[in-house]
Amino acid sequence: MGGNEASLTNKQSGKKKNVMVTILENDQMPFVDVPRISTRVLSGASTGAAETTVWEQWIEPDGFIPMHYHDTEEVLVILEGDVIIELEEGKTTVCGPASILVAPNELHGLHPQSGARVHLLGIFPTGNPRIWDATGSPRPLPTADIQTTCNPFEGNHE
Q1: Residue 158: is it exposed, middle or buried by C-beta count within 10 angstroms (0-12/13-18/19+)?
Q2: In CATH, what class is 28-139?
Q3: Phi and psi for 33 in degrees, rounded to 5?
Q4: For residue 95, what are the β-bridge partners?
Q5: What's the pLDDT tens digit per position in 37-89?
Q6: CA-CA distance, 95 to 157, in Å (whole number)?
Q7: Parallel/antiparallel/unpaired status of strands 74-80 and 98-102
Q8: pTM here?
Q9: Sequence spans of domains, the chain
Q10: What number is the average pLDDT over the span 109-134?
Q11: Strands (DSSP E) along the chain, which ranges?
Q12: β-sheet bridge partners, residue 55
């Protein structure tokens, strides 16, 4: 935590008023590299947010997000690049810019489509998103997942 609280001056009265706004600057948004993905935490419990998590992520050409699910909705905003989103029922290619709305408990994973870097946002309606793998076992958040290095989608780049 540790953002700057804002104070605004009312244009009409000229009085200063403390408002419930936190401003996070570059060094207050943790940036974490793990072997397959880079994540900057723009908002979440670690930055003082109670109700919203936003991760800015970069997936390298050989990187991936393994199959998993959440107990909340997730919005994936593909800013740059093309991804293959894998679901239990199949897979599809999504070309950025685009948004992917993932329902709670929907098993999904993704990886770059054609060996290019992908830039995306992951957005959750909670300050503490939780992740489970396909078997229902808890998974670490992407900022703490240094163990997952074997790409299950390797060779699966249409």
Answers
A1: exposed
A2: mainly beta
A3: -100, 130
A4: 82
A5: 999 999 999 888 999 999 999 999 999 999 999 999 999 999 999 999 999 99
A6: 14
A7: antiparallel
A8: 0.84
A9: 28-139
A10: 95
A11: 4-9, 16-23, 31-34, 37-43, 53-59, 65-68, 74-80, 82-87, 90-95, 98-102, 108-112, 118-124, 131-132, 138-139
A12: 41, 122
Write the DSSP symbol of residue 23: E
Tell me the C-alpha to C-alpha distance, in Å, between residue 31 and each of 42, 84, 99, 141. Answer: 9, 24, 23, 13
Task: Report the C-alpha gap between 127 and 58 in whole angstroms.
Answer: 21
- b/e per residue, 8-38, with b = 16+ CB within 10 A? eeeeeeeeeeeeeebebeeebbeebebebbb
Cα–Cα distance between 23 and 71 in angstroms, integer? 28
Q: For tokens 């930055």, what's the residue?
A: 47
Asked if residues 121 and 58 have their Cβ atoms less than 8 Å apart, the reply is no
